[in-house]
Amino acid sequence: MTYSPYEKGILFYLRMTMAWTFLYAASHQVFVPSFSVVGFLQHTKTWHDAFAVFTTPAMAPVTTFMVEYGHLAIGLSLLFGLMVRVSAAFGVVLMIVYWFAHMDWPFIENTNNFVVDYHLVYAGVLTYLIAKKAGHVFGLDGWAENLAFVREHPALKPLVA
To answer: Which of 50, 58, 107, 140 is 20 to 30 A from 114 in CA distance terms?
Structure first.
């Protein structure tokens, strides 16, 4: 893909702001020993029964680990522009899950957000980053795509293409 300087600037800005969003969330989770998703998930309203499964004693540590290090991995991937297609896709799924978790139908999180909130906006931005191959703009995806190892193993190309 060819990008105008303006497009490069916008894509880089969006990728960096989304990287910051995920890394900031991770900083409050990975580096705080008492963090657990249980408190948040036990207070879901519309989809409470679906999310309660993840608060059981057997699942809570796994869910907490996945959330903590998922935020960190997505944020680092976006920051460095490596495997953006994969990390942004996981980010979209995570944002949709958070949107459902915050739902008190038809409001999201509070009465100021009717059906749509920032989670859907973030999901849209991440989808845009996937569509525009944002990892190729000041990122490592373009470099990784040209590695001999990736060229020799075509199954890896979709991760960075």
So the answer is: 50
